[in-house]
Amino acid sequence: MQENDLYKNLGIPKGASKKDIKNAYRKAAKKYHPDMDGGSEKKFYLIRRSFEILSDDNLREKYDTTGEAADNDPDNGKSTLVNIIAFAFNTVLAKCAETGESPLETDIVYRVKEVIKNSIAETEKQIRITKGILEIDLKLSGRFSLDKENIFENIVLFRISQLQISLSKFEESVKNYKEAANIIKECKFRSDKKPYQSPGDLMMERMGAFGGGYY
């Protein structure tokens, strides 16, 4: 496979219809998926990348005109990482506002790292679930006899393509989360020292936060 020849990657002519592109993608994705015998992560990436560009009218027109099929602009990639950090930061501040905790008296950076860490764990869980469903669907393909219209087979192939797309997005998210975490790996936050509170005062404060106390 050639990285810049998107049509050859899918095994279709330049004038292929959208339907031909989709069918070619389903067939090639099933063949080269890393979880399949003879699969290849690199080939699967090229197939998915070719499909994403050729199935989009604007991207396809640009590719047909210029021959360019470059990956996303590096600035866009950096923006994605900053957005992840900003979302985690806003989440921490919102939690402080909810609990009445002063953001000046807590380790904001540590909390942000924890939010990103939890996002990684949750997304990796989704990856495991999606892989499990995909494994079953791959085994379902080709088992439907007397189906002249290929109704069930087409349903299964569509499910496979959607699961593969979802899996790709989840894996990309984990990659971005980890890169975002790495950016702030050495960051520290200088928090104010919390004023002393007796155990009784702290308990009353918590009771007030949760239910307004006894009165």
Describe this structure in words.
The protein folds into two domains: 6-66, Helix Hairpins, CATH 1.10.287.110; 74-183. It is 69% helix and 0% strand. The chain is built from eight helices and no strands. It has helices at 6-10, 18-32, 41-54, 57-66, 74-99, 108-140, 151-183, 199-211. The chain starts with 5 loop residues before the first helix and ends with a helix.
**Number of helical stretches of at least 4 residues:** 8
The share of residues in helices is 55-70%
Average residue-wise pLDDT:
85
What structural class results from the helix and strand content?
mainly alpha
N- to C-terminal distance: 73 Å
Total separate domains = 2
Task: Please give the largest β-sheet.
Answer: none
Strand-residue fraction? under 5%
Number of strands: 0
List the secondary-structure elements in sequence, H or E. Answer: HHHHHHHH
Unreliable stretches covering 5 or more consecutive residues: 210-215
Overall geometry:
elongated
Radius of gyration: 25 Å
